[in-house]
Amino acid sequence: MTDVLAAALADVLTARSVTDLVRLSGGASRDTYRFVADGTPLILQRQRAGDVRDMGNEALVVRAAGAAGAPVADVVASSTDPSALGSAFMVVTAVEGETIARKILRDDRFRHAREVLPAQLGAALAQVHAVDTTGLSSLPTADQVRQYREALDQMGQPHPAFELAFKWLDANRPEVGPPVLVHGDFRLGNVIVGDDGLRAVIDWELAHLGDPMEDLGWLCVKAWRFGSSLPVAGVGEYRQLFEAYEAAGGGAVDPDVVRWWEVLGTLKWGVMCIMQANAHVAGLTRSHELAAIGRRVCENEHDLFLALEGRW
Fold this sequence. Notes:
Elements: H1 2-13, E1 18-24, E2 30-37, E3 40-47, H2 55-67, E4 75-79, E5 89-93, H3 101-106, H4 111-129, H5 144-155, H6 160-171, E6 180-182, E7 191-194, E8 197-201, E9 208-210, H7 213-219, H8 238-247, H9 255-281, H10 288-293, H11 297-308
Antiparallel strand pairs: 1-2, 2-3, 3-5, 4-5, 6-9, 7-8
Helix pairs in contact: 4-8, 5-9, 6-9, 6-11, 7-9, 9-11
């Protein structure tokens, strides 16, 4: 099977040879491979069955973000035609570094990176939110409170903590400004980090148009601190993130609006955990990873209680 995929990649890239094809651990919606084409290290991501999002949008967004100066890998090839590689795909240049949050937060190698990451993450988000959205009208926009309200109702599971959060979110909605490009899943695990700090932002499949404060709030969700007591991705304080974002041209940050998105992010992740576990149980995508994610629902319920009491 690997030989077949290597041959198909060679055809797509018009490469003389494709070698060292290795499957990497990846997210729930992508199959990820590393390989070498004519001496150049590259990364292939293929869309998994059951994921209905348009991967063509993802490639479009990565190219636009790169053109705006955001730290991303270069897109080498992409297509939504499944005939070439079996599903929609994107090939990008390989960026060396680490994505595993536990290592970034604990290994001595990343001691300096942890010191500079809060500012680098803030600056990168400012660059992302400054992307010209003229050619990105195909990206989704949605009222996420309503979206996840409907998703939870469809699953028919009682979660009183989530109901409490929905009421709080409805009662404290911030004003909505002009939409910008939002990464949608900006956190450790979706960035590549080296000894010198941030090297690339990856995993753009949830990109959409919306409130820029969404990305800042998601970065601070308790689940994405991975056990650290520091609120910004487990590496820094709110002040460091907000000041760097503003200094890089990201506009003024209202901490109360970020908190609103942080609460919504915690709720979203809880609902998403249910959805991913159900995908396994229903047989749509059989995966131990998806099944195990179901146990995290109660963690998010607990985190919501802390968030609404201002104790996180």
